[in-house]
Write a structure and sequence with these properties.
Length: 270
């Protein structure tokens, strides 16, 4: 017996043919599967992906709602525009009213200044007239003071009494009494009390008698404002430097001093 007969061989034992065949089949199947999977993956990778979105169908109800919403929006816009136009018009009107008010205030102030100037002018004229009357009395050239304090008698007293009794009654253009008068209507009514018929209007009454100077007045004389024959106002001198006249609708029949509104001239009927 050889001395090496008991030592195992270093060579691996041979596999059987059946085992080798089975392993070969399994490997082949695995490779086939991988090949198919690879091919399938490559096919899917190469094929583009398309996504389809389905839009909702616009039904009749939805279209009506959309149209109604558009109408509401249009109406709201029109309403806002109308309101804006109204606001602009109101602002313009307010601005114009403010300007008109300022203009009216300016005119009122100018009228007030003008009236004040006219009053001052009349006051100066009255002062001058009073000074002239005083001068005439002291020099003996006139007797304004004596005539202004004279006492009416006879028909003159009746005329004076009548016109003073009408003080406080209303002024109405064209009226001749007994509850209201205009200036010439009062004078005509007064002289009618003593049987004297005077013309109806102030222009004619200013030439109805004898012209007398304002520094020689007597109670019952007719005073006039304006020119003789073209007078625009008349009254009756009642003595004491006073006269009675139906002045205007604001004052009615009043008794005032001559200095209140100095007359232009006078006529004597009695």
């Amino acid at each position: 017996m050889s001395h090496t007969a008991h030592i195992r061989s270093h060579r691996k034992p041979r596999r059987s043919a059946s085992t080798i065949a089975m392993r070969t089949g399994v490997a082949g199947g695995v490779l086939s599967t991988l090949a198919v999977a690879g091919a399938s993956g490559a096919a899917h990778a190469a094929e583009p992906v398309t996504q389809t979105l389905e839009l909702p169908t616009l039904t009749a109800d939805l279209a009506a709602q959309v149209a109604q919403s558009a109408d509401v929006t249009q109406q709201a816009a029109a309403s806002y525009q109308l309101q804006a136009e109204r606001d602009a018009a109101a602002a313009k009107a307010a601005k114009q009213a403010k300007a008109d008010l300022a203009e009216a205030k300016k005119k009122a102030e100018e009228a007030a200044r003008k009236e004040a100037a006219e009053r001052a002018s009349r006051a100066a004229e009255r002062t001058t007239l009073s000074a002239s009357s005083d001068t005439g009395s002291s020099t003996g050239t006139g007797s304004s003071t004596s005539t202004s304090t004279s006492t009416a008698t006879g028909s003159a007293a009746a005329v004076v009494s009548f016109v003073q009794a009408q003080v406080g009654k209303a002024y109405v253009s064209g009226a001749t009494g007994p509850s209201a008068y205009d200036c010439s209507g009062l004078v005509q009514a007064a002289f009618k009390q003593v049987g004297i018929s005077l013309p109806r209007v102030s222009q004619a009454q200013s030439t109805a008698g004898t012209q007398v100077g304002l520094d020689n007045l007597q109670p019952g004389d007719i005073l006039y404002w304006g020119g003789a024959g073209s007078a625009y106002h008349v009254g009756v001198y009642v003595g004491g430097g006073m006269f009675v006249g139906a002045q205007n609708s604001s004052t009615g029949v009043v008794e005032r001093p001559l200095s209140y509104d100095p007359p232009s001239g006078a006529v004597r009927v009695l």
